[in-house]
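Look over this one:
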Amino acid sequence: MTYSEFRYLWQVGRLASGGAVRLRDVTNAMTVSKVSVFRAVERLERAGYVDKSRDRKIRLTEKGQKILEEYRYAMRCLQERLLAPLGFAEDRAEEEAMRLVSALSEKGRKQIASAWQGVAER
C-alpha cells in the first residue's frame, strides 16, 4: 500500500470508528478535493480494504481493519522507539511513522508490528 493510500485508509478508520463515514467527512478532515478522496476510495475498495454503499458511506472491511491494525502497531513501535527519543513532536512523529511504515516491505512491517503487539499485550 502506498503512503497516500495508507493516509486515506487511516482517516477512514479514524473517522468511522467501527461504523461508516461519508466521503465528505474524509474530504474535510484531509482538506483535499472530493475527486482525490473518490479516487483513493476506489483504489482501497478494489484492494478489498473498504466497502462503499450507495449513499456514499465508506466502511472498513475485515481485511481493511486487519491491515490498519498491523500498520498501527508498526507505527507505534517506530514512534515510541525511534522518533520520540529523537525529539520528534507527537504530530510530526505520527506523520513520519506513517511514511516509514509505508516504505517498509510487507515482511518488515509484519515483523515490527508483531514484535510491538507482543510488547503491548504484556
Remarks:
- Residues 65-113 form one domain.
- The helical segments are 3-16, 23-30, 34-46, 62-83, 90-103, 106-120.
